[in-house]
UniProtKB/TrEMBL annotation:
One of its GO terms (biological process) is regulation of DNA-templated transcription. Residues 5-123 form the Response regulatory domain. It comes from the Bacteria. It comes from Streptomyces humidus. Residues 150-215 form the HTH luxR-type domain. This is DNA-binding response regulator. SMART domains: HTH_LUXR (SM00421), REC (SM00448).
Length: 222
């Protein structure tokens, strides 16, 4: 099977069916499984090894956060990315999902084309979050962190790397970071990859958490 292999996890049958129809309509994607509970999502992840899981947060038996934590901790599932679903302002579990190992999140009422784009970008390890409200949402829930950052802090980074990390936390893509700092896209991408390596981060989601929890980026700062 060519293209991205997608696993859908949501306790609402109609929601799963709608997402499945949308994903299957894309020529570069295919649905390899559907789960109605978090525990079923973990089992199917191990059986199917998808490229990306679209994971609802609120599910019976095992919620999406715990399912994400189990998947992220499984060495055999390295490379499987999780894109969590949220109801946005009402769902305060989103940061816990990121801490658990999710690579990004999307809003349930996202437009179809935007959902497909989000799947592609997160599967590619590129843009995690959009600027503005998304960053403010994360900042709001990180004001009272539940524990230490999941990886190292930014103290050992160079000034340029700290600038890049701050822009990642604001939701900028590598191309936008390059434009902001007057770099080439390849140089920006290299900086992001090097920062991930130095901090021991598995993806951009953990970089966002480090930036906020270390105080490098604060709510309201531009």
């Amino acid at each position: 099977m060519s293209g991205l292999r997608i696993l859908l996890a949501d306790d609402q049958t109609l929601v799963r069916a709608a997402f499945a129809m949308l994903v299957e309509s894309a020529p570069d994607m295919a649905v390899v499984g559907q789960a109605g509970t978090g525990r079923e999502a973990v089992r199917l992840a191990r059986d199917e090894r998808p490229d990306l899981i679209v994971m609802d947060v609120r599910m019976p038996d095992l919620d999406g956060i715990e399912a994400t934590r189990l998947i992220a901790a499984d060495d055999e599932l390295t490379g499987v990315r999780v894109l969590v679903l949220t109801t946005y302002d009402t769902d305060e579990n989103i940061v816990e999902a990121l801490r658990a190992g999710a690579s990004g999140f999307l809003v349930k009422d996202t437009r179809p084309a935007e959902l497909l784009d989000a799947i592609r970008t997160v599967a590619a390890g590129e843009a995690l979050l959009s600027p503005g409200p998304t960053s403010r949402l994360i900042a709001r829930f990180l004001r009272s962190p539940a524990g230490p950052p999941p990886v190292g802090g930014p103290e050992g980074l160079s000034e340029r790397e700290r600038e890049v990390l701050a822009l990642v936390a604001r939701g900028l893509t590598n191309t936008e970071i390059a434009e902001t700092l007057g770099l080439s896209p390849l140089t920006a991408k290299t900086h992001v990859s090097r920062i991930m390596g130095r901090l021991g981060a598995r993806d951009r989601a953990q970089l966002v958490i480090v930036a906020y929890e270390s105080g490098l980026v604060s709510p309201g700062r531009t």
